[in-house]
Write a structure and sequence with these properties.
136 residues, five-stranded mixed sheet, alpha/beta, single chain, 4 helices
Length: 136
């Protein structure tokens, strides 16, 4: 009987070939974040030559271990070399969000804005992408 090492769940989808939408659910450990990063790399690889936006829904996110946050920070550093235009984070807890964000210094490399509603986050990304290249 094998024991599952990954903690935390996620979903990732590509919308309109220019917005990567992901949802993070639960508490993440390093293995859970590594699995998320691997799938994010694969998704972004399909659009790497085009400007894109990233929407991260963290309304059901409950935190992460220190080594998971370090891995996530490395991923956001990698995004700095991509065609990422902006990131919208949909949150439910400003306190938990502030704590997590403070552990991801590489987010300062990106234009990031938090929202309480997905529709507002999507609209903001679309506007940023339109200003970037008239692509949406």
């Amino acid at each position: 009987m094998s024991k599952k090492l990954e903690h935390g769940r996620y979903s990732i989808e590509l919308h309109a070939d220019c917005i990567v939408i992901c949802e993070l659910i639960g508490t993440f450990n390093k293995e859970g974040v590594a699995a998320w990063i691997l799938e994010m790399h694969s998704t972004i690889e399909t659009i790497k030559e085009k400007p894109f936006g990233l929407l991260i829904d963290v309304r059901h996110y409950a935190g992460a271990t220190e080594d998971a946050l370090e891995a996530a920070d490395s991923f956001h550093q990698w995004l700095g070399n991509s065609m990422l235009v902006c990131q919208a984070h949909v949150i439910s807890s400003p306190t938990l969000y502030s704590i997590s964000i403070s552990r991801l210094p590489s987010l300062k490399l990106h234009e990031v804005k938090s929202f309480l509603r997905i529709d507002e986050a999507c609209a903001w990304i679309v506007e940023k992408l339109k200003k970037q290249n008239n692509i949406v």
